């Protein structure tokens, strides 16, 4: 079998018959949504069924070709947007890596780099009429830039959603990019430890102060951007650190929430199991709502959807898929269809909102899948998110 489709109207059946496909058509009752008519046992094998008139066949073929061309156009647009996000991510990752490494040695020049990137990102997000979040291709390696880029991207989307100004978004982007810069001063053995002794935990928590010192020395960070860095481990119930403050700015609350979400999906500690994106949101909602701003959490769930990018799902026809971008509706994201007969780059993507029949039935834990399936889908061990923006306001 080379492909499968779900037909949901008599017209679609007539289109298939008009197309006169080569090979065989197989019907699966278990995957159908309607009861078929009883078979006609006396029908000759060579009889293709109810004939389709030549004029009707031509019209049906034209309609099918128009539908296929429209579908190809949507796929081209989706792939172009994903490719643009990939290129922008690569450029931003290099710039951020260089700036974070240089923040301790050459704080002023590194600060200029971070400020320019933050201002550009804030402008694009704030003025863009359409902002799309993408799950990127496989990203290998280690470095602070991976977490920084994820956190900045989600902070920008959440900040715009809750009405931050362009200036506030710039400060938030700066804080998100540099919030963990001080971890360059912390030994890797402490950073990656699943459990720490008290003196190790105390040392680990100093990364907030180191980040603040680097940022202040650069001269590029406003007072608000510095306060955002200072508050990224604080909780609204006062149980956070390093100061145990309850009153922190909305931007600092955004960074604190997004930072925790991304760390649940991509743990820093060696050997700690990564949660699926949908599990991470559920964990925060069920267990940490007293620590984070509930309104911001609701907005984040709306942005990411019930099935955030990176989630493996099963559709109601039995197909496996990987969520690659949120949809307009939380239950209808854009998914990459598991197609082992082709490469992942060539596999079809589907906007579930545009398909009236296909729906997600459940999220699938990666560890329950066979190795060959998991290798093909390959939900990133390190989730990498970025965005594309279209229709910038002049």
Describe the structure.
This protein is elongated. It has a five-stranded antiparallel beta sheet, with no helix packed on it. It has a two-stranded antiparallel ribbon with strand order 1-7. It is 48% helix and 10% strand. Strand 3 (320-325) and strand 4 form a beta hairpin. By secondary structure, the protein is an alpha+beta fold. The chain starts with 9 loop residues before the first helix and ends with a strand. Helix 2 (54-102) crosses helix 4, helix 4 (144-161) crosses helix 10 (250-265) and helix 10 crosses helix 11. The chain contains 13 helices and seven strands. The longest helix has 49 residues, at 54-102. It has two domains: 86-122 and 131-304, Hypothetical protein af1432, CATH 1.10.3210; 312-378.
Strand and helix map with partners:
Elements (H helix, E strand, L loop, with lengths): L9 H10 L34 H49 L4 H21 E8 L8 H18 L4 H13 L9 H4 L6 H8 L1 H12 L4 H8 L19 H16 L11 H11 L6 H11 L7 E4 L4 E6 L8 E4 L11 E3 L8 E5 L6 H7 L7 E8 L2
Antiparallel strand pairs: 1-7, 2-3, 2-6, 3-4, 4-5
In short:
48% of the residues lie in helices and 10% in strands. It is α+β, with helices and mostly antiparallel strands and 394 residues long.
* SS-derived structural category: alpha+beta
The arrangement of helices and strands along the chain is HHHEHHHHHHHHHEEEEEHE
* CATH superfamily label of the largest domain: Hypothetical protein af1432
From the N-terminal CA to the C-terminal CA, the straight-line distance is 50 Å
Question: DSSP strand (E) fraction?
Answer: 5-15%
Task: Report mean pLDDT, rounded to a whole number.
Answer: 87
Low-pLDDT sequence parts: 40-47
Task: Give the strand order of the largest sheet, numbering strands 1, 2, ... along the chain.
Answer: 5-4-3-2-6
Number of alpha- plus pi-helical segments: 13
Seen as an oligomer or otherwise, the chain set is: single chain
CATH C-level category of the largest domain: Mainly Alpha
Question: Which range best describes the helical content: under 10%, 10-25%, 25-40%, 40-55%, 55-70% or over 70%?
Answer: 40-55%
Radius of gyration: 25 Å
């Amino acid at each position: 079998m080379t492909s499968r489709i779900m037909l949901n109207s008599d017209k679609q059946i007539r289109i298939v018959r008009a197309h006169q496909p080569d090979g065989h058509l197989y019907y699966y009752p278990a995957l159908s949504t309607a009861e078929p008519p009883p078979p006609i046992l006396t029908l000759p094998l060579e009889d293709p069924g109810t004939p389709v008139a030549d004029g009707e066949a031509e019209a049906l073929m034209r309609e099918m070709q128009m539908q296929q061309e429209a579908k190809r156009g949507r796929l081209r647009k989706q792939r172009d947007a994903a490719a643009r996000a990939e290129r922008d991510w690569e450029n931003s990752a290099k710039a951020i890596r260089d700036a974070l490494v240089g923040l301790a040695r050459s704080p002023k020049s590194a600060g200029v780099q971070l400020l320019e990137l933050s201002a550009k990102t804030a402008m694009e997000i704030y003025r863009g009429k359409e902002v799309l979040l993408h799950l990127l291709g496989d990203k290998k390696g280690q470095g602070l830039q991976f977490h920084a880029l994820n956190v900045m991207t989600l902070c920008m989307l959440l900040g715009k959603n809750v009405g931050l100004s362009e200036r506030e978004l710039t400060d938030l982007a700066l804080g998100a990019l540099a919030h963990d810069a001080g971890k360059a001063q912390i030994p890797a053995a402490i950073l990656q430890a699943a459990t720490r002794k008290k003196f190790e935990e105390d040392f680990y928590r100093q990364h907030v102060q180191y980040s603040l010192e680097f940022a202040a020395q650069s001269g590029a960070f406003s007072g608000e951007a510095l306060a955002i860095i200072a508050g990224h481990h604080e909780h609204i119930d006062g149980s956070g650190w390093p100061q145990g403050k309850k009153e922190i700015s909305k931007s600092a609350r955004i960074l604190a929430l997004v930072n925790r979400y991304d760390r649940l999906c991509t743990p820093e500690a060696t050997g700690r199991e990564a949660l699926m994106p949908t599990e991470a949101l559920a964990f925060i909602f069920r267990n940490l709502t007293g620590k984070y701003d509930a309104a911001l959490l609701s907005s984040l769930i709306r942005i990411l959807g019930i099935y955030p990018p990176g989630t493996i799902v099963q559709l109601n026809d039995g197909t496996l898929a990987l969520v690659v971008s949120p949809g307009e509706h939380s239950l209808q994201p854009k998914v990459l269809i598991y197609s082992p007969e082709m490469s992942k780059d060539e596999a079809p993507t589907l906007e579930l909102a545009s398909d009236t029949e296909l729906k997600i039935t459940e999220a699938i834990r990666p560890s329950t899948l066979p190795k060959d399936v998991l290798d093909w889908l390959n939900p990133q061990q390190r989730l990498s998110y970025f965005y594309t923006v279209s229709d910038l306001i002049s």
